Amino acid sequence: MSRIATFTMIGLLLAAPVLGAQAQAKRSSTDAKAKKLYCWNKGSERICSDALPQEAVNSAREEFSVNSGLRKGGVERTLTEEERADAAVAAAQAQLDQAAEDTRKRTEQAMLSTYEDEADLRRVFVERTGILDNNVNTANYNVASLRDALVTLLGSAGDRELAGQPVLPKQAEDIRLRHAELVTQKRMQASYLDQRKALDAEIEETLQRYRLLKGVETDPRG
């Protein structure tokens, strides 16, 4: 073996421990950089560990660097089935709200370009107003008629009782039926009246919006 080769081999042998130590130090440094510290709450207790146990996987936690101690990030807790369903409903509602807002803006633009004045806009509600007014009038008539019929039946039954005679089964059945019909018609009457009031409010709100879009001031006297 030549003298140069001998010196080269000696140099490699001497350098080997140093190179191995450097590689080990590099690996240790890399491992330390990659290692994290996890912190989460278990009831009222705060727990921190460099290993995340299975029971804490779904918990909200913070992650810190072992080397620097700086916060590296965090993970929200896993939602339950019910929470995921609620979130889905909320997202769907938000989408509907946005669609409603977009529709409102398009409607306002159409309102400005379609109707020249308030009288023109009021005509849009004429058919709905007529239908509801007819329903209210019909319900009023039915309630009055059924009440009169019921009063007559009750009077007839009362006369029989005053005369010491029993109320006939047919009379009792007629009274029951008329009373049930009267209750139904009164509910319908109340519903139609509520709908009419709601329509009046809708008309007024639409007119107010129209005036605002047109830049027309509202007369304080109405």
TrEMBL record:
This is Secreted protein. It comes from Stenotrophomonas aracearum. Keywords: Signal. Residues 1-23 form the signal peptide.
